[in-house]
Write a structure and sequence with these properties.
Elements (H helix, E strand, L loop, with lengths): L24 E2 L2 E3 L1 E3 L2 E8 L4 E6 L7 H11 L6 E4 L12 H4 L4 E5 L2 E6 L2 H68 L2 H27 L1
Family: Belongs to the MCU (TC 1.A.77) family.
Protein name: Calcium uniporter protein
Catalytic activity: Ca(2+)(in) = Ca(2+)(out)
Amino acid sequence: MALRCMLGLSLGRRFPLSRAVRLYSSGQSIEVGVREGFPVLSLPLPSRNETCDFVLRPFLQTVAHVTSSIRNEDPGIERVVLYSPDGNRISSSTGVDLLLQSDFHLHVNDLKYHIKIPTDMVSGMLDGEKSLSDVRNVIHKLYTSLNVDRHQLSKERELRGQLEALASELAPLETQRQQLAQRSEREEPMAGKLTIIILEQMLASECKYLRELEQR
């Protein structure tokens, strides 16, 4: 979501700051304010001779979004660079949530501004990070749970396939057992009974294995 320049209504008038916006400027120092829960950077535009309010999205934007939006609002701006309090240049990939955790310096062409971050905003950013971390943990747990369910479903299908295969293998043995039982009654009682006993033991062993599979 792009940064917005709050210049008022469609008539192009400068946006009047309400009491809900805590925005204070003093010389080359600018304090970031808050409007409707979002940080607001009020920055003078050198070519247009007016102040533009940039609404920041801490968890969606980076320093690159900030510098690009400032340049887009004033064609006379050629250079926008941010520096940390100790003079190190802030990377364009730095998140706005990290940027707003301490004061920083903003250079627009040859103009230099000291951007002040209110203490309550810093604590709010930390709370926001904690809330975001909690959301991420919940999502991770849900994702893990879904993966476990998928694994269990896959395992269940695999076991069902094994059961069907074993049932197919047992069917001929059962048929053979019944045929031998009928023959033993007519021909050789003792030999037939021994064969039946062996087949029954084989069937019992296979059935036991099937029950073990079902219990997994």
